[in-house]
Amino acid sequence: MKIALIAHDEKKPEMARFAAAYREILRGNELFATGHTGKVVADATDLPVQRFNSGPLGGDQEIGALIAKNQMDLVIFFRDPLTSQPHEPDVNALIRLADVYNTPLATNIGTAEVLLRGLGAGFIDFRKLVNGDETQHEQYE
User: Fold this and answer.
1) Model-level pTM greater than 0.90?
2) From CA 25, how far away is CA 9, in angstroms rounded?
3) Tens-place pLDDT, residues 48-102
4) Residue 54 in marked binding region
5) Residue 55 annotated as binding?
6) Distance CA 141, CA 125 (A)
7) Per the annotation, does 36 bind a ligand?
8) Average confidence (pLDDT) over 36-46
9) For residues 116 and 28, is the Cβ–Cβ distance under 8 A?
10) In the UniProt entry, which residues are flagged as the active site (predicted)?
11) CATH code of the region 2-134
12) Looking at the annotation, which residues are catalytic?
């Protein structure tokens, strides 16, 4: 599975702890992340992480493009709703894309934990059942 990891600045330490705690589950998957979050996760886990641009330079949009191509299976975006900065990625666009393409998206550690524990227990690819083999939604073409 392809898993995207994004964290606002204040949530990066939490993402590092989370990734380290779930290292064994994450190990069996392809990890993608925005620039600095990817470095934080790689340093905390010693796992390979494909890093996109940082959030302010469009890394979240690169992840969004993979969601729109139905090429991302799970997104974990630890957002800071209280002190996020103007330069940080906006989760709303990713939430919209995740909803359109039935991609699970967690915005906090509790939901992320449930989703990763589900991966560890075995995963039914419900997105293929819902989306079929198509990578585009015809009603939007």
Assistant:
1) no
2) 24
3) 999 999 888 889 999 999 999 989 999 999 988 877 676 666 788 899 999 999 8
4) yes
5) yes
6) 25
7) no
8) 97
9) no
10) 60
11) 3.40.50.1380
12) 60
